[in-house]
# Entry
Amino acid sequence: MVEINLTKKIADYADKSLLIVDDDNPFRERLARAMEKKGFLVTQAESVKSGINSVKIKKPAFAVIDLRLGDGNGLEVVKEINNSKDNKINSRIIMLTGYGNIPTAVAAIKEGAIDYLAKPADAEDVENALLADPAKKAPPPEDPMTADRVKWEHIHRVFELCNRNVSETARRLKMHRRTLQRILSKRSPK
# Structure
């Protein structure tokens, strides 16, 4: 069977600048390192304000922006990218969120995002979405995370956001504290 390549390579682009805006520091750092290894020139921002400031300095060719940030909505950064004075660059923007729903996906696309990915998204998914041919659908991931892995990632993310407080995490996840402790003591599923 002949495989059709629906994505370009980052080497095909003259401008390889990528702006990552996410308030989840460990996730942002991991994604930035992975995208740098793939050939992108990464700039990071942890808030709407710092994301907008980065765009004012230099409009990126690519952007990965979290929808919910500590100081506002990531759509504000998308608007700034699309309204910036440098219209020679047509930025390819991906929205990321841990709280995916239809209205926010529609709002992101209306503001100029080319795709919408739910967290936790890995670097392969982000790269495929950024470099996909806009006229065609991106292929499904070869090795997607299992449902158990997604659940494990979500629980650990909430645990970290609660400053590793088991009782607070259990309350927010609406689960029994001992059940949460058992999950946290196990290794991550594949």
